[in-house]
Amino acid sequence: MKIRSPIVSVLGHVDHGKTTLLDYIRGSTVADREAGGITQHIGATEIPIDTINEICGEFISKLAIKDTIPGLFFVDTPGHAAFTSLRKRGGALADLAILIVDINEGFKPQTYEAINILKMYKTPFIVVANKIDRLFGWETHEGASFMESYNKQAPRIKSDLDLKIYELMGKLHEEGFQSERFDHVTDFASQISIVPICAKSGEGVIELIALLLGLAQQYLTQQLEISEDAPAKGTVLEVKEEVGLGITVDSIIYDGVIRDGDEIALMDANNVVTTKIRSILRPLPLEEMRDSKNKFKKVDEVVAAAGIKIAAPNLDDVVSGSPLRVLSDQEDVEAELLKELEDITVDTDDEGILVKADTLGSLEAVVHLLKEMDLPIRSAEIGDISKRDVINASIAMDENEEYGVIIAFNVKVHPKAEDDLKNSGVKLFAGDVIYQITEDYEAWIEERKEAQKKQWLDAIIKPAKIMILPKLIFRQSKPAICGIEVEAGTIKTGYSLMDANGDYVGVVASMEDKGETLQAMPRGQRVAMAINDAVAGKDFEEGDSLYVDIPEKHFKVLEREFKDKLTEDEFLALDEIVEIKRKRDSDWGKLGLFEY
């Protein structure tokens, strides 16, 4: 039997410091180059036991940790809510987890989501309270242990930090966990350790790594045992072409052993692909899988947990996020993968928007988020945007304008499709930071709704009231022309007018002021008005107030949808109009049971 490195999944909210923590440990700057500062794909880093001993020094010997475990293998999972499916995969792989929380911001939506994943998989975890350097007045001590740095702080700073830790303990208690700051924990099996750190300066990292190693040794040794002959299981991180090697796959091997010459099974978008390994390459320790600056070292055998690159034929169509299995006589690996393919196939609707993404994991993640937004998806595929995609989105747009949309994560528009897209009217939301794409889409939907509401409101006849000015009747009839003042609301041409008894007076034919013809006139203005069907002296007198005769249907829409859009004077005029109408019909304008 062999002991493998425990897999440690790093979970947490956007920008709470997951990648920065690993950067400190491996001395790289991956976080600075991530799109939008957010890890968009799972990364993997191996920290060998020798490096851990160098980082932790005497702290390891104090905890009486033996060298039975070969090191720690970190999986850096994306932090945004959209990547639930990838995080579940990360959570499922993990033996241990770090839940990283900004000590100043506390729990955020994705923090709760990460906790739910950890609960689901019953994964032991440590809470890392990051960014202690941002506590007002904190004195930074590069690379120091937390206790060493904490003891050098002013009493007020210690008190501030203790309060923040208590707040985290309260949140964890609400989620069903007992917790303590790590140095106060009495039972690591039943209490969650909270380790305050600064990922940038490295303060507290010593205790964090030592605790992870101690927990793995104390509680996980049995599950870390693997047979030297157990066929490997893994996950494909990325498919890419390497000079001199052709198409390769970067993978995490999380169980068993993989050897040069093994036959392996993977997946393309629809089927299982089998191939024979031509060579296995492994990055040097501390190199990040996505960012290995040095050449890979060719190896004959790799034991989990490890990040490796595999060169083999027939990898062209393999998708990122695919399971990877070494073929075995003892089990039907292909059948197992086909079942997994069924489980992760994206369900689509008869109508809806189009989704494109660069990997299977990203596609699942985008679809998951859009489904949470109750958005129907007509098509969800991996790859760049093609002419066919634009045609399909145009068809969707003909059925419903809101569905004439392509959501594209980390993919390009094929050159042959660019002109078609520009001329189609299809709306493209694209980028390499998923939450930005979905926020832009939501903002567009909101703009459309507001524009539609304005359009509806403009079409609704709204309350208005005018007064016939004394001594300013210029023509008796055909049409009656008189001077008026708008007492409330805005009067428009085409509006029907009634008197204070609810009797029909006529229709506003036109309005003029100093020779200029006007379509609408607001409260407080005086104009000459022509009223069709009305006879001055019969239908109205000088000094009379006339009201816009609002149709009952329009009133109900106003009451239900746009009451908050009315001005105070429109409100008052509307009350008077309703009172006039209900003198004749007591039920006028009342909403029925199914109209609320």
TrEMBL record:
What GO cellular component is one of the record's annotations? Answer: cytoplasm
Pfam family example for this protein?
IF-2
Stretches assigned to the Tr-type G domain = 3-223
User: Keywords assigned by UniProt?
Assistant: GTP-binding, Initiation factor, Nucleotide-binding, Protein biosynthesis
The record's PROSITE patterns line, in alphabetical order, gives: G_TR_2
Q: Which GO terms describe its molecular function?
A: GTP binding; GTPase activity; translation initiation factor activity
Query: By its UniProt entry, which InterPro entries does this protein fall under?
Result: EFTU-type, P-loop_NTPase, Small_GTP-bd, T_Tr_GTP-bd_dom, TF_aIF-2_arc, TIF_IF2, TIF_IF2_dom3, TIF_IF2_dom3_sf
Q: Does the keyword Membrane apply?
A: no
Name the CDD domains on file.
aeIF5B_II, IF2_aeIF5B_IV, IF2_eIF5B
Q: Nucleotide-binding as a keyword?
A: yes
Record-listed GTP binding positions: 12-19, 76-80, 130-133
- Name the domain of life this protein comes from: Archaea
Reported function:
Function in general translation initiation by promoting the binding of the formylmethionine-tRNA to ribosomes. Seems to function along with eIF-2.
Concerning its family, UniProt says: Belongs to the TRAFAC class translation factor GTPase superfamily. Classic translation factor GTPase family. IF-2 subfamily.
* Name of the protein: Probable translation initiation factor IF-2
